[in-house]
């Protein structure tokens, strides 16, 4: 029986999430599976990947073949590197301590990259929000100035209209006397 590590789709239309599953190669995509080892959500930035790394490593070492997408996910999480190092330990090429230290160094550098990306995205988002707020403040100030100008023009017109009849009234009272 050929065993595959692949994605099983779930979620709603245009907002899919995927389960990372171990399944028989002959089973349908969303059908029967042997074990669920994680989830993958491509809708977030960066994509959210929750993976049981011990179980994934066990299956990869036992010969389960990942599909292209799951191979990329396993590589991203370091499972394939860990397999590579473990094969070297099993053959006697390196010791377990050296393999663990290499993996931990890689893992810390990978975590720093991911943290840097999320921080950069948050900074970009905050800068964009500040720029939008500044632009909105400018627009509101321009609107307020236009309204104030309109109100002063209307007040002047009303003042002129009230002064004109009063002046005419004084002229008629003076001529009547």
UniProtKB/TrEMBL annotation:
It holds the Pfam family Ribosomal_S16. Gene3D superfamilies: 3.30.1320.10. Residues 164-177 have a biased composition (Low complexity). The keyword Ubl conjugation does not apply. Residues 150-177 are annotated as: Disordered. It comes from the Bacteria. GO terms for cellular component: ribosome. Residues 154-163 have a biased composition (Acidic residues). Belongs to the bacterial ribosomal protein bS16 family. This is Small ribosomal subunit protein bS16. It comes from Arcicella aquatica. The lineage of its organism: Bacteria, Pseudomonadati, Bacteroidota, Cytophagia, Cytophagales.
